[in-house]
Amino acid sequence: MNLSKVALVSIVSGLAASIVAGDATSTNGDGDSLTACNGDEYSLHTHELNDSRDYLYCELIFNYPGECGGDVYSTSPLAPCDLDWWANLDLKAVAAERGAESVTKNGPQRWSMDTVTEKVTEGTDVGGAQMVYGANLAPGTATLPSYEVFYPSKTQYLLWMAGLPTYQLTDADGYNYVIQGYKVETSELATLGDQFEELPEGWSYNVITPDEDLILDLTPETGAPSVIDEFDQVYIRIPEDDTGVDDPDDAGHKNAVTACIFGVLLFVPLLL
C-alpha cells in the first residue's frame, strides 16, 4: 500500500453552540487541541457534514522523519476539492511550508456515506486552499498490503441512510466491510466487482441496500478493522452486532502497533 491508500482519520465530540456554514456545522472544541509533527498546535472543533454522499474531497499527507509519521490535512468538510488547484499543487513548496520531508496526495475521492461528523481544526491555508488537520498516521502505514486487515486508531461517526446503496466487501471468514471513501467513478461502483483482479480467494464485492440506517460509531477502544482494495479505497468492518463494537480487546492491542492518532478521543467521524 502506498500513502495514497490512507483515508482521513477524524476525531469527534458532541455538538454544542453550533455555527452553520452551508451543509457543514462547526462547534467549538471546548479547549481540545492537536499538535502537528512540526510543532504547530491547533484547537479542535466538531464539524458535521450532511448530504456527504459523493462529496468530493482531497487529502495531503505531510511526511516527517522518525516516529512522528504523517500528518493528514483534508479539504473536507470546508469545501469540495478544487481539481484545478489539486492538479497544479507544488508539493515541494507545500512540504517546505510545514517543514516536512515530502507531501503525498491522497485523492481526489468521494465520501460514500450520508453524514460525516469529525473533530478537526478550523481551516488553515495549505498551498492556497483551506484545509483542516485532524489526524496523524503512524510510521509504517504505507507498507500495508491490499486486503490485509489493519486497525487504525480513530474516532468516527458515519451514517449510511436506509434505502440507499452501500458498497461492501465480504472476506473469506464472512466479515463485511463497507467502503468509506471511493476513488473510482460513481457510475462504476455498482459493477466494481467485475474490475477486481487481486481480490483474495473467497472474497466478494456486493451492493447492499440496508433496510435500516447503517451507523458506525467508532472509537480507539472499539476498534475499526479496515482493509484497502487494489484501487486504494478504504473499507471499514461492519460489527456483527448492533453495538458498533468489534473485538475491542484485540483491536485495542493492534491499535498501538499499526496507528497513532493524536487528539482528544471523544466522539466522531476521515479519512482514507
Summarize the structure.
With 272 residues, the protein is mainly β.
Summarize the structure in words.
Helices cover 8% and strands 36% of the residues. It is built from 3 helices and 17 strands. The chain has helices spanning 83-87, 91-97, 248-258; strands at residues 18-21, 24-27, 33-35, 41-50, 56-63, 70-74, 102-111, 115-121, 124-126, 129-137, 156-160, 166-170, 176-182, 204-208, 214-218, 226-228, 234-237. Strands 5, 6, 7, 9, 10, 12, 13, 14, 16 and 17 form a 10-stranded antiparallel beta sheet that branches. The chain is globular, with a radius of gyration of 17 Å.
Shape: globular
> What's the N-to-C terminus distance?
12 Å
Radius of gyration, in Å, reads 17 Å
Helix proportion of residues, in percent?
Answer: under 10%
Structural classification:
mainly beta
Counting DSSP E segments of at least 2 residues, the number of strands comes to 17
Biggest sheet character: 10 strands, antiparallel
Q: Look at the structure and give the mean pLDDT.
A: 78
Helix tally equals 3
| Stretches with pLDDT under 50, minimum 5 residues | 1-30, 242-272
Query: What is the element string, with H for helices and E for strands?
Result: EEEEEEHHEEEEEEEEEEEH
The amount of beta strand, in percent, is 35-45%
